[in-house]
Design goal:
By secondary structure, this protein is α+β, with helices and mostly antiparallel strands. Helices cover 45% and strands 31% of the residues. The longest helix has 28 residues, at 44-71.
Length: 152
């Protein structure tokens, strides 16, 4: 491959408060659910132990997500884009722009509050499975998607 110029590079943005609210909301709900019986039965030591275990699990999940975000790399060239991942397994995808059907961005209400969004790149893959790539938690997603559409 000749020396090509990267026209756009996209990295996922890890925002701790967003990740806690988005990925760990089930754990936060569990905190609240476990608090009620501990108040009724005055078993705060059991609640404390449960809170510590849940906090450790939440921390592991957040560290896992942070590392995953760091390992993903999306580079856009004149005629293709390359997705590289060195998280757990090494994965490289090369997609020529002629194989791209659609590029769009989506934002949940929570993502809008944190100025994040996901970019979805759908391709013409014949297998119908994994026929696209989602770039999660892109900061200023609308402008990044507009730049991406101007390249493609």
């Amino acid at each position: 491959m000749k020396d090509e110029k990267v026209l756009l590079k996209i990295k996922s943005k890890f925002k701790i408060i967003y990740e806690i609210l988005n990925r760990c909301s089930a754990f936060l709900l569990l905190f609240i659910i476990l608090l009620i019986p501990s108040i009724i039965y005055k078993t705060f030591i059991v609640y404390l132990i449960a809170v510590i275990i849940i906090a450790i699990v939440m921390l592991v999940v957040l560290l896992f997500e942070r590392q995953r975000y760091k390992s993903y790399d999306y580079e856009f060239y004149e005629d293709k884009f390359i997705f590289n991942s060195n998280f757990i397994n090494v994965e490289n995808k090369y997609v020529k722009y002629e194989n791209i059907k659609e590029v769009k961005y989506v934002q949940s209400l929570l993502q809008t509050f944190f100025n994040l969004g996901d970019i979805v790149i759908n391709t013409n893959a014949e297998n119908g499975v994994n026929n696209g790539i989602v770039i999660h938690s892109v900061e200023d997603v609308k402008n990044v998607c507009d730049k991406l559409n101007s390249i493609i």
